Amino acid sequence: MKLALVIVVLMAALLFTLSCQRAASDFPAGTIVDLSHPYDAETVYWPTAEGFKLEKDAEGVTENGYYYAANRFSTAEHGGTHIDAPVHFADERHTVDQIPLMQLLGAGVTIDVTQQCAGNRDYQISVADFEKWEAAHGQIPREAIVLLRTGFGQFWPDREKYMGTNERGPAAVAQLHFPGLHPEAARWLVANRRIKAIGLDTPSIDYGQSTLFESHRILFDKNIPAFENLAHLDQLPPTDFHIIALPMKIKGGSGGPLRAVAIIQSK
Predict the structure, then answer these.
(1) CA–CA distance from 126 to each of 133, 182, 186, 244 (Å)?
(2) How does pLDDT run across 153-175, given as a tens digit for each residue?
(3) What is the SS3 string spanning 143-211?
(4) What does the pLDDT look like over 91-115, one tens digit per residue?
């Protein structure tokens, strides 16, 4: 009887171990790249927005002898590595909490336009840039997450180099100079390619000098969210990686802090 009990226990332990190994092996293998900048006093925000604040409520050993720390923070929705929900520029479109989770997960592609942007801070990514990429790598896959690498991520968190100005307030908005997506390219995407989301390594999907924010409006009208101020796009290949981009779930939010990662597939 005792021998039978021992055998049952050993078999149960073996099955548990195998199930754990199977679960671990099911997770996509590959190199993980953090696509989010940390939030701190240097985090880049739009000139009219207040920056990130972290205040300590408690830190240290309590009277009962154990260590305890707790903070509070405040932040504008649109600053640092964040998501723009479609409702940001399109009435009655998805708020942050309404974006389907599957729209924030999936295969990614990187469109590298660093050369075009190197000599032109106001460069707008064009239809020709997408067509050139597709000539080299094939058509943008259905329901892909498209990332635009301008090279401006290298300037983070230097506001003047990254945004074009270090000044704050409404008057500073006219001094913004950084690349973005041309409205014609945004129209081409929604008309010809079915994508889940789009992101880039600048403060806005529209270029810095935009006053109409047409690319926002075109994409968001189709419930395509944007990831802005992404980090480390230089570490991504053109294809063969997956994106997990999960924002703070703010009910009714027009945007919010985003923790995004890429998993580059093992070859």
Answers:
(1) 11, 6, 9, 26
(2) 999 999 999 999 999 999 999 99
(3) CEEEEEECCHHHHCCCHHHHHCCCCCCHHHHHHCCCCEECHHHHHHHHHHCCEEEEEECCCCCCCCCCC
(4) 999 999 999 999 999 999 999 999 9
Please state whether the predicted TM-score (pTM) of the whole model is above 0.85.
yes
Burial of 103 (0-12, 13-18, 19+ CB in 10 A): middle
CA 133 to chain CA mean position, Å = 21
Give the residue among 154, 253, 133 at the shortest CA–CA distance from 202.
154
* Cα–Cα distance for residue pair 121/113, rounded to 1 Å: 12
The SS3 assignment for 134 reads helix
The yes-or-no verdict on residue 232 having pLDDT over 90 is yes
What's domain 30-40+77-265's superfamily in CATH? Putative cyclase (3.50.30.50)
Strand partners, 242: 107, 263
Which of 31, 24, 197 lies closest to 100, judged by CA?
Answer: 197
DSSP state of 96: G
